[in-house]
Amino acid sequence: MDRAILHSDANAFYASVEAVLHPELKGRAIAVCGAAENRHGIVLAKSELAKRMGVKTGMANWQAKQLCPGLVIVPPHHDIYAKFSRRLHEIYERYTDRVEGYGLDECWLDVTGCPMSPRAIADELRAVVKKELGITVSVGVSFNKVFAKLGSDMKKPDAVTEIGRDDFRQTVWKLPCSDLLFCGRATTEKLRRLGIVTIGDLANAPRELIVRRLGKNGEMLQKYALGQDDSPVARVGEEETVKSVGHGITCVADLMELEEANVVFVALAQDIGQKLRYLGLQARGIQVTARESDLHFESWQQLLPAPTQCAADLAKAATELLKTRYDWRKPIRALTVSAIHLDSVNAPAQLSLFGGDGKRRKVEGAVDKIREKFGGGAIKPATLLGENKLPEEAPRQSPPPGGI
Ligand SMILES: [Mg+2]
Fold first, then answer.
1. Which residues belong to the active site?
2. pLDDT for the residue 39
3. Using CA atoms, how far apart are residues 261 and 295, in angstroms rounded to an integer?
4. pLDDT for 68 beyond 80
5. Of 3.90.76.10, 3.40.190.10, 3.30.1490.100, 1.10.260.40, which CATH number belongs to 245-383?
6. What distances in angstroms separate CA 329 from CA 87, 137, 251, 339, one per listed residue?
7. Fewer CB within 10 Å, N side or C side of the chain?
8. How far is the CA of 377 from the centre of ligand 1 (A)?
9. Ligand 1 mean position, distance from CA 13 (Å)
10. What is the pLDDT of residues 118-164, one digit of tens each?
11. What is the pLDDT of residue 356?
12. How far is the CA of 330 from the centre of ligand 1 (A)?
């Protein structure tokens, strides 16, 4: 029997949850921003309407406001997003025990052999999520994970797209390669230089050329383009052990110096710290990846002095790592921070008790609880409040200030 895989993706997840929390915002252009009251805060997510007005993730608050004067800027409520994410999983698990999350708002479901047709399940999921959670999902239906994910992106919000074994060449091959899972900007650019623009181009390119120029990753992507992805959907509770928790952002304008990078690290570390606490994990190492404006990547890793799940520690370590390794001869366009060498907080060798993290972890745990109770706006790290913010009196002329 051919597999039946669904990929369900919550539409404009953060902004949609905000509209549920604040019904008066429904239908308005919403941007979820770090440091909502600070002009140097950055857009983390936006509603469909804000997107149509040109608001982009990674843009400075003030730029977003300029593009979209009616924009409502709200601070993030990560704990509530995590709760909505859990409730989405609960709904999916009514249909199958093969449910594998991808980020907070995306999930694969293997519904092979279910009594209902995959299309009927997809339509029912849309209706049930809307009724129970007040948000919408787009669902892709296909015979593998890669095409199911592609399908969930093709029509939205609140839609179903089917990609079948007989028609995927017509549906998928005209799309750009960058629509494929794991085909990032650097790979897209490499492919473009080979004259490979669409997924069809990739499917039909000589395999030796792809392997020679793009290695294993290219070979995998070509298989995806040909519909040859047979990776399974993990069973509930059997997800692969989390190896790293990372978060990255592409900035709208280049970062020119360490202080600007620090503002980004503080925002990213918030998410990572919260996710580590949610998963009960701590990091023994950190990885920073910087992409320069010419798409050149560099990545560095370092062990931490003591294991931690504390956002402040992670941001500090990321800043220190970048400080020692990056020479700023070129500005930075994108930054990713990952917590690596993870282990359970209950691991026997709990060095953190002696490493000074115990107290701070307690504090951040308490902060999570307060956020849960009063919303994410109740507490913000000092840096986001302006302690380390860039001097507003001395804006750079070129490129414009507040690019992040
Ligand atoms: Mg989504």
1. 106
2. 62
3. 17
4. yes
5. 3.30.1490.100
6. 47, 43, 18, 26
7. N
8. 23
9. 5
10. 999 999 999 999 999 999 999 999 999 999 999 999 999 999 999 99
11. 40
12. 33
